[in-house]
Each structure stands twice: as C-alpha cells, then as structure tokens.
Amino acid sequence: MKRATSKDVAKLAGVSQTTVSFVMNNTPNVSLSEETRKKVLDAANQLQYIPNSFARGLKTSQSKLLGVFLPTMDNPYYPMLMQYIEKYTARLGYSVILCCTYRNPEREKAYLDLCEEKHMDGVIYLFTPNWMKRVVQLSHTIPVVLLSEKSDDIPLNTISLNGFRCGYLVAKYLLDLGHKSIAFLMSSVSSVSLTRTKRLEGIRSAIRDAGLPPETLQVFTAPLGDSGQSEAEAGYSIMEQLLKRKDITAVIGVNDLVAFGALSCVLNSEDKRVPQDVSICGFDNIYLTTMTRPKITTVSYCTEALCELAVDMVLKATGDSDVLKLASEPQLIVRESTGPAPGTSGQCVSS
Amino acid sequence: MKRATSKDVAKLAGVSQTTVSFVMNNTPNVSLSEETRKKVLDAANQLQYIPNSFARGLKTSQSKLLGVFLPTMDNPYYPMLMQYIEKYTARLGYSVILCCTYRNPEREKAYLDLCEEKHMDGVIYLFTPNWMKRVVQLSHTIPVVLLSEKSDDIPLNTISLNGFRCGYLVAKYLLDLGHKSIAFLMSSVSSVSLTRTKRLEGIRSAIRDAGLPPETLQVFTAPLGDSGQSEAEAGYSIMEQLLKRKDITAVIGVNDLVAFGALSCVLNSEDKRVPQDVSICGFDNIYLTTMTRPKITTVSYCTEALCELAVDMVLKATGDSDVLKLASEPQLIVRESTGPAPGTSGQCVSS
DNA sequence: TTGTAGGCGTTATCAG
DNA sequence: CTGATAACGCCTACAA
C-alpha cells in the first residue's frame, strides 16, 4: 500500500497540487477561500497524507535534523544534555541524530560526513572535536556550535563551560574551608579533554591566589580500564590509596563520576567519614550527585539553559556570520560531601 | 558555495551522470573500465562530492534512519541500550534518531508521525507503546520491533525481556537464601509499565512455588516527584520507612535505580548493614550496580546482544511477514548486596 | 561499456 | 485566488 502523495490529495479535493501545497504549508502571502482550504484538509485527512520529506528536502534543502556529537553515553552527563537538546528541538520541529564517537576519530569523521550527506540543519558538539580542521570546514556549510571548552584559536561558535572558572570556584571554596592539602583525581580518559585541563588550571590558580604553595594540590591519575564505568572505578581505586595517607583532607574529582567513586570508597572504609574527615566534590552536577548520601558538592553550568541556547544558535546562524563565543557562569552547588578541614574551627572566610 | 552534484562530477570526469552513479554505488552487473572508474573517483574526490540523500531517498525510499523510542534518559538503562543500538547500526550504515517520549502520548504520536514523514527504515521501541493502535498501523509501513515486555495480544515483533522470569529468578534466589519476608519497592512511574507488573507476578509465582504464603511479599509504592532521579529517591524514602521495621530482610527494587536508592539509605543508617541485615537487589544491570560498594545484585538480559538482534530484525523485516516473538533468558547476577537471611545458617539450597 | 531520458514528490515561479 | 510547469539530484530501464 503506497503512501498518498500531494497529487492524490489534489485529485480527491478537486484542486491542483499547488493549492494542496499552499494549504499544507500555510504559505504566507496567499489567501485561499475557507472552502478550498477545508476541502484540501479533509482530503488530506482522509488519505492520511503525510508529506514526503525527501521531496521537500530536495526543494528546500532543509532536513529538520540536528546532529549531536558526544563521546559516550556512559557518563550520565551526556545523556542529560542530549535529553535537554531533544526536548527543546522537538518543540521547534527538529529531530536529533545521535552521533556517538566513542572518542574515536574515525567514527567522528564518518558522522561529520553524514551531516553533509543528510543535509543536517545544524551540528552541536558536546565535547571538543578531534578533527578540528574537518569541523571548521563543515561549519562553512552547516552551522556548528560547540558546547564544551573554549579554545581561542578555534573559529567556531562556542559556548564555553568555563572549566577554568569551575576549577577556581571549587578550589577557592575548599581553601576557604581551611583545606591545605587537596587531591585532584583524574581517570586516564580525562587527560584527553581540554575541559579537564582547564579545570586543573583553575584549581592551581586559586591556590596561587590564596598564597599557598603549588604542593597544596596533588594530582592523581588512574589507569584506564576499557569501559565507561571506569571513571567511577578510577575514583574508587585512587581513593583507596589516598586513604592510607594522613595529609589529604579534600578531594576533587575531575567529574562527578570520579567523585562518586571516591565517595563510595570512603563510605566503605571503617575509619573515615565524609565530610568530617575528607571532603569530596566533583563537576557537572549529574543526577547521581543527589542520589548518594551524603549528596555530592559539585559545579553546575545551568546545562538546560545552555543546551537551549546552543540549539538557538545553531538554528539561527545565518551562513558564515561572525563567530560567537560565550562563557557560562558556573555555579558551585554546595551539598553534604564537603565541609571544613579537620582541625579547623570551620569558619567560612568567603566574602 | 553550493555542494557538488553528480552532474558536476560527470562533467569534470568527462562522462555521463549514469557512469558516475554506477561508480559511486558499485552497481553490480555493470563493468566499467578501470580508467573511467578512476577518472570518476578522482573527480568526485576533487569536488568533495557527497551524494544528496534527499534525491537518493526520493528514488530508493530508504532513509538509512532508525527511530529509537524511549521514555526518558534519566534512567541509565535507556542510554545504555541507545548506545548499544547506535554502535551497531553505525556499523551497518544506519543512523539513529532519538525519540524521547517522556511517557507523554502526544509526543509519542508526534514521533510516530515523524517516522512516516522521514521514511525511517525501522523503529525500535524500548518500552511498551502507549498508542498501540497507531504503532500497529505504522508497522504496516515500517518494520517495528519492541524490546520490552511481551504482550500476547500485540501483533508486533517483540523481544521480550521476560519480566516474569526475571522476577521469578530473583525471588527464588532470595527464598533459597532463607528470606521469609521480602519487600518489593516501586516508584509510582513503575505502575505504568507492563514489564514491572510482570516482574511482580514472577516474584509472586516463585513464592507460591516455594510453598510460602503471599504475605511473604509486601509491595510498597512511593509517590512520584517530577524528575527522573525520583526513582532513586523513591527507593530511599521507602527504605527509610522499612528500616523502622524488624521483619523485612530482603528488598527487591523494581529496577536498579530504586535498589540503589534503598542501598544508599541503608548505607547511611547506623545500625543496619548490607547484606548482613538486609539484602538488596534490582533489575536491569545498569552500570551503577557495579559502582556502589557493596555492588548490587541484579538481573541482566544480555542487553547488547538483544539490541543487535532488534536492529537485525528491524532491518531484515520484509513487509508484513510473520510476527516474531522472542524471549530473552535473563540471568541473575549475584554480587555483594545480597546474602543469607539473618539468623539463617546460610546454605544455598539451589540445586 | 557508456549515454539518454524519464520520473520520484515537492516547492516555487509564473500566468490566468 | 488558483493552476500549469519547471526544477531539485539521483537512479535506472533502455538504447547505442
């Protein structure tokens, strides 16, 4: 049973294809009689007419498709953003294609090609591209927005997550709480990402500003397993080591997953408590951080708003307009997993 | 700058469009000279020729698009399946459109329509549809596969998660461990789903088979917040109540998220320990279950294999062939969160 | 082995 | 206000 075409509708309604098109699209600057309109609508309904998007695309070269690039779904951060994007685009009449790269440049490139082939109306990157050259090239054809870390030398619209500021915020907060020996926990995948590097820089900067020595921060990187859960594993295993030491009083996970792993570890130890003995915090504000007890202190970027903004930018972009660079103002979300350093009176020195 | 078309390539290569088409598609039963082939390939390369999928679709009515329906991304179970599906389809040259319904029938219907409009080559449902009539209708046009609970009266290809068996497995396991008073924890969204009902039936059946009274199982439902994290919240808050009682020795979450919430609660209590005082387990085998300490006992359905199977079914389906019904054979994954009932010698009675 | 020609279902430009 | 008619870019008999 073949699908009804606009021609069929026209025939049934006793009008021309053109008229059908006008009615279906509510074409402006065309006024048709109520009668014709109704006739067409009825016919369309009766035949269950659904416009063929191929034909339409051929004419309009609009696909109503958006490509969303992400490295993995294993970190809930990405599905969360994905969902925000989907929720918003659906309202605008666009659909979303999942472009999961697994941090594999080949896959990334393949999806980039796909974007052209399918004439996607826009591309949103939730991480820093690996094929920068190709992405920039693509951006001449299709609007691209990066929702990740900003790199000044990239000529692409980007909404920066402002990793530096995130790191600074967290570190300043811990420093104000009296912590003098802080650990930064990275999984090995972390090293890849610009965002994560920036977070580290931010932390270091806060320490410097506080007049403390660089040794205040110690960085630990766990070897990587193969699967995504290894981020939490990483946090757990590094924390196991750290528990043997007396000096560390605060732990910053490179993201919430790592922080979660670290927290699990401490929760399982007999002698240490969070936050009385160790403070733990992360970045991203994924839902996990509110599901644990204690709930995890973290940094949020108003992700939903940023996602909507990214969509707006991508859809509004008119050809090669000026490159837009925005930075989110991250917010520290203090919850239960952080507190004054042990042996401190605990006054919060912040302004 | 307009995209190159096959006509451009033909002109540059000094051949006809037809030849270009032949070369690009490696059309069988056509042998062209190495020379022409190379000429065309070079020209295509030089012009960065990418076939226009609209035009191609218009002829072939294939979109190389798959619609994946899921209720939410908040439960990691769904992103996990989504990722499995994406990983596999990408290899087969298909892309995936995220159809997130938020359990809202209107959205679901809208996406169903979209599937027709975009001529998707297949649709995979990761939950039980709400517009069964519409889905069945759609299935006459587009292959549909359900990866969820089987309902005998639904004329759709389905891979059943076999919720009944899942419930049975878990219950039998706990019963064998000597538990005589078991709680089943549901969030209020759970009540919607067929899968979850089946799990409950399976549990009850196991109890019956063990010759124990129905009161062995007590069912608790938490009121629903608005967001997805409330599944874990539900587990947590119900567990808070249960901790005040002495009778319950084992808790089954309607899914891993609920189980996780329950676990968090117990972990935070002073007097109870998992699994010594309470056993906790769930369903789905999401990555969270291995991230906690103790790791959570759960049921797995070999989801990756099932996802690939679903994709195969959807792509191989030739028109209205016979409806295929498969059932997964779920596997109990015993981890650290379950153990013998308190006061039991703890022998495992299982064969 | 290669080229010609027609059509897929829309939209858009013109006349009427 | 409505109706022919011509593309859009590709595929595919069929012809050469």
Automatic annotation (TrEMBL), chains A, B:
<dbReference type="InterPro" id="IPR001761">
    <property type="entry name" value="Peripla_BP/Lac1_sug-bd_dom"/>
</dbReference>
<keyword id="KW-0238">DNA-binding</keyword>
<dbReference type="Pfam" id="PF00356">
    <property type="entry name" value="LacI"/>
</dbReference>
<keyword id="KW-0805">Transcription regulation</keyword>
<dbReference type="InterPro" id="IPR028082">
    <property type="entry name" value="Peripla_BP_I"/>
</dbReference>
<protein>
    <submittedName>
        <fullName>LacI family DNA-binding transcriptional regulator</fullName>
    </submittedName>
</protein>
<dbReference type="Pfam" id="PF00532">
    <property type="entry name" value="Peripla_BP_1"/>
</dbReference>
<dbReference type="InterPro" id="IPR000843">
    <property type="entry name" value="HTH_LacI"/>
</dbReference>
<keyword id="KW-0804">Transcription</keyword>
<dbReference type="GO" id="GO:0000976">
    <property type="term" value="F:transcription cis-regulatory region binding"/>
</dbReference>
<dbReference type="InterPro" id="IPR010982">
    <property type="entry name" value="Lambda_DNA-bd_dom_sf"/>
</dbReference>
<feature type="domain" description="HTH lacI-type">
    <location>
        <begin position="4"/>
        <end position="60"/>
    </location>
</feature>
<keyword id="KW-0678">Repressor</keyword>
<dbReference type="GO" id="GO:0003700">
    <property type="term" value="F:DNA-binding transcription factor activity"/>
</dbReference>
